[in-house]
Amino acid sequence: MFKTTFIGAAVAAIAATGALAQDFPQRPVQVVVPYSAGGSTDLSMRVVADAFERIFDDSTMVVRNQPGGGGAIGSSAAVNARADGYTLGAGAQGPLVIKPLIGGNDYQLDDVEFIGLYARSLQVMVACADAPFSDYDSFIDYAGENAPQVGNSGAGGANQISAEAFAAAADISIESVPFNGSSEARTACIGGHIDAMVASPAEAKSASDAGQMTPLFVMEDERIDLFPDTPTAVEKGVDFTWSSWKGLIGPKGMDEATLTWLRDAVEQIATDEQFRETLTDMGEFVTFEDGEAFEARARRDMETSRTVLENLGMLGMNN
Fold this sequence. Notes:
Order of helices and strands: HEHEHEHEEHEHEHEHEEHHEH
CATH class of the largest domain: Alpha Beta
CATH superfamily of the largest domain: Bordetella uptake gene, domain 1
């Protein structure tokens, strides 16, 4: 009698879990983007939302912009939301990995549920107009004797972290020059006011085609199609890679069935051909990583960032 009752209870529990998975979502899923409308994180998430509604019939995904605090305000809203799966966040490197190290936010990486990564923004080091170097080797030689001015899109941001971390790995010196956004850094680079900058492949491609920048190396394991003649730091003997990333996150505490459904959804979206083509045309590097791999990437980036920020005297500066 007990055995029969136990088996019946187990079957009922499994059926209930399956029902939960099938029933989700029953209303629109909201995704908080921690930046203003029109940026790459916002635009890519809107492509995710379109794919979500196309792939999952009768399902709705609403993108809500909540900028401020370097991405901390919107990220906080997602991380501290009710854990029912209906309020999620656009997971970005700056607010999740770098901001908690600098301080001034109310969450830590342990508070984040990593659902899945769907894209990365690659980074290229480029020589600016009139720079005293034009390829990787001459850049390293110059930086061994001098400290080239390397522009970035903001103090303590991902571009400064990547440039400083590379310099440490390559045992060279640089002088980081922060600007108010990548467009200002790009203008200074084209004008020859700095020696180099960290750029996206799309930025580097258009400027190099116009003779305004020269790509030096790509921060990937392997060369990329956009710059087949540009080496990686890895092939030059420096074990360094870095990219910004975009994924879906949520609060801790979601039930397992809902979390599994969401993780499967990110995988279906990231491997959908139409989605991949659209995002690739936007200059993104479509990459799927499940929640575990996504979290591992974030934790690696946090340790890299911690070392750089500590060296710069920026660790915990806003606490």
